[in-house]
Amino acid sequence: MKNNKKAQFNEPQICEVAYDDDEDTKCGIGPFQGDWLQKFANKQSYIIVYSIIGTFQSMFFTYFVAVLTTIEKQFRFKSRTTGVVLSGNECSQILLSLLLSYFGGQGHRPRLLGIGMLCSSLACFIVIIPHLFYSPDTEIPLTNQNNLTFTCSDSRAPSSNDCGQPDYTDSIMPSIFLFLSQFVSGIGSTMFYTLGIPYLDDNTKKTKAPMLIGITSCLRLFGPTLGFLLAAACLKLYVNVTDQPFFGTTDPRWIGAWWLGFVAVGLLLIPAAMMISCFPRRLPRKQTRISSSGVYRQVSRQSSSKSNSPANSERPKLKDFPMAMKRLLTNKPLMWNNVNNVFTVFAISGYITFLPKYMQAQFQLSASNASIVNGIAGIAFMAMGLLIGGMVLSKLQPRAINVQIYMIVADLVYIIIFGVFAFVGCDSKPLHGMRSDNGLINPISDCNIDCSCEGLRYSPVCSEDGEMNFFSPCHAGCKENSIDSMGKKIYTDCSCLAFFNSTSNAWSNGSVTSGICDGNCMTIFYIYVLSKGILQFFAGTARVGGTIINFRCVDPKDKAVALGLGTFLLSIFAFIPGPIVYGILIGESSLLN
């Protein structure tokens, strides 16, 4: 018994320490490579910093989507124009993703990631250029003036010559800048995805990679949440923050300070880019230290099971690019995975892009409230799905075919249920005077034909019983207006209400208030939010598996370019046509346009 204890005491104690000390494994840039930085040269620090830049980078797109309806309103974009603007991101990915991933995948990936994040920061500042040179719609009144009440009066109602239909020619230059912003942003997102994840995979055990990728993806989803919440806060401010119009955020004429959030995100991305650039070309590997003998044993790349084989350190050559493409295009598991992703993304890309607009129309939400709902509902559930999916893959290590089958089933269910969601919503209150025979709206009727309402812009009001919307107070036949004790504008003596069974109240008989009528369908709305969250969770569990399949079915040196190929295919077959097709369909719909 004593001998056993002695043997146990003398058994060498093994621990791991970093052994590499060359320039490729040192943290920092140029002369800024102090010893205090080297303790951050590990995958734990990389996961934290990579998640931070992912959070800020993903905030850009979700914030852009959240303020999309406000940008459309200020610059009078049509939905089809918006679809084209959003395709700028994919245009850059089509042109550059393959080359960036091929050459960058075997270069100094952290520094290239830093350059990509600076591109995303630049995109944030490009997008606000239209705001600096194009003021908001000057026909929106900023003060409560009597000559801007739009009531039924020949002397007050402007003629059709003064207020014609919206002129879309003024939106050409803003749309060009917005497209350019998306194009530059696409460079940053391409580098983030095709270089950042392979860098993590190359420095991680195969068995731990799914869990760590799941954690990284989960943390990155804070970005969409913060992006939507930031949009909700900014859209509560008027586009010119020093002005305050007499109507509130729920009024269709309200234009929020959409540009403000882009400034914040752009500034956050600059220090984030500097942090990721400080990581070395490759993280230091480990060695085994045997304390009893003082001998250090290097863990070789071939014999160690603690990390995947890193990318080929040889400088890539352009002449080898066609061979790399041939290897990937003839790789059946990789291509089937890409086909599945293309069909799924095409089916839902337009829906996701125009989701805030859809929710504003279907559930009568303001732009800021729609952003809050999108930031909380679904994204938190998807984050849990990504985390659990990565943990399950690390624990069970299923066969690739089983992972692909699960992905196909999950994506199919995802598409079908999302299609059903398109028919979920509140029963919209009718607009008085709507004519559906030719799809056009004619709000002129017998009760307001003498009010000279022609040419007035859309300024909706709701009847006092909450059951009927009118195009404007003039179209409701209202002759007077006043402000109640709560500061709310009320239009009275409205002749068109005689056509309906409006209930009387304390104001006066036949009155309307600014804004559209509330749908009063919160039960349906909560069911929608919960169902969407569960669906996002289910879809999230399949996402990590797709990334792992891409890595394990290709040569280690092809990891980055395999992701680049997937990005290229998604852009050309899903992300570009998806929003454009949805934009055209929405443009033809009087409900959302």
TrEMBL record:
This protein's GO CC annotations: basolateral plasma membrane
Residue ranges of domain Kazal-like in the record: 441-498
The entry's keywords: Cell membrane, Disulfide bond, Ion transport, Membrane, Transmembrane, Transmembrane helix, Transport
Compartment list: Cell membrane
Keyword Membrane belongs to the record: yes
Record-linked SUPFAM superfamilies: MFS general substrate transporter
Low complexity bias spans: 291-313
Pfam family, one: Kazal_2
GO molecular function terms listed in the Swiss-Prot or TrEMBL record: sodium-independent organic anion transmembrane transporter activity
InterPro entries recorded: Kazal_dom, MFS_trans_sf, OATP
Main location, first listed in the record: membrane
UniProt region (Disordered), positions on chain: 290-317
Keyword flag Ribosomal protein: no
Gene3D superfamilies recorded: MFS general substrate transporter like domains
Membrane-spanning residues: 47-71, 83-105, 112-134, 176-200, 212-238, 258-279, 334-352, 372-393, 405-425, 525-549, 561-585
Membrane topology of this protein: Multi-pass membrane protein
Domain of life, per lineage: Eukaryota
NCBIfam families noted in UniProt: oat
UniProt family annotation: Belongs to the organo anion transporter (TC 2.A.60) family.
Stated name of the protein: Solute carrier organic anion transporter family member
Species assigned in the record: Artemia franciscana
